[in-house]
Design brief:
Oligomer: single chain
Length: about 70
């Protein structure tokens, strides 16, 4: 981000393990747009990392849909 001169609001991150390998990226980074395909017991979907709807059926498609939504 620093090298490219980006702010946190210009970065989107996707990962699948917010309580394991991807914790630093999805949770600790405090990026406002982080997404996961795993339901890890969150009570709501109002704060990052956001759980992608339909990701249990097609994780890749749910990422494409999220990107399309963010770009529109």
């Amino acid at each position: 981000m620093k090298k490219l001169g980006l702010t946190p609001k210009q970065v989107v991150a996707f990962g699948d393990l917010p309580l394991d390998n991807d914790r630093g990226l999805l949770v600790e980074s405090k990026l406002p747009y982080t997404f996961t395909n795993k339901d890890y017991g969150k009570k709501d979907n109002k704060t990052p990392p956001f759980i992608l709807p339909g990701s249990s059926v097609s994780p890749v498609r749910s990422v494409y849909q999220a990107i399309d939504y963010l770009l529109s």
